[in-house]
Design brief:
The chain is an alpha/beta fold. The protein has one domain: 3-Layer(aba) Sandwich (Rossmann fold). The protein contains 5 helices and 5 strands, in the order βαβαβαβααβ. It binds NADP nicotinamide-adenine-dinucleotide phosphate.
Amino acid sequence: MTYEIALLGATGFTGGLTAEYLADHAPGDLRWAVAGRNRARLDELARRLSARSPDREPVGVIPADMTDLQSLTSLASSARVVATTAGPFAASAGTKMYFPFRWSMRLAVCTCWTR
Ligand SMILES: NC(=O)c1ccc[n+]([C@@H]2O[C@H](COP(=O)([O-])OP(=O)(O)OC[C@H]3O[C@@H](n4cnc5c(N)ncnc54)[C@H](OP(=O)(O)O)[C@@H]3O)[C@@H](O)[C@H]2O)c1
């Protein structure tokens, strides 16, 4: 288990707000990572978040695409908790998201919303 928390969808608007909150308020020794499908954007985001809170553990990066079951299974095995703001929700709440987390017996936290 590499991370305590992975945040899928961190490159989006809602995910960005969540990531900034974690960077500012998480315990300094918390190991957490941003996850998503665009490696370049994730690297840039992790660099910016780490620079924002230099006293904390550097933010990790986990490549993951919610349309790819294998990458979701890998994501679920990388973190104790996976929080997701990846959207649209109609796409992210399906079985592809659900099953890897159920198999891994880990906690998946999904934001539920109406606009
Ligand atoms: N905006 C709001 O005020 C608000 C408020 C409450 C709830 N919500 C809900 O939160 C969800 C996200 O909204 P948002 O405004 O933050 O949208 P957004 O800015 O478009 O962000 C969507 C995120 O999902 C990621 N994503 C999309 N397809 C993906 C895939 N196949 N694999 C992995 N990641 C994928 C995007 O990654 P890329 O960077 O690679 O595109 C991006 O990080 C929506 O369902 C929305 O209804 C939004």
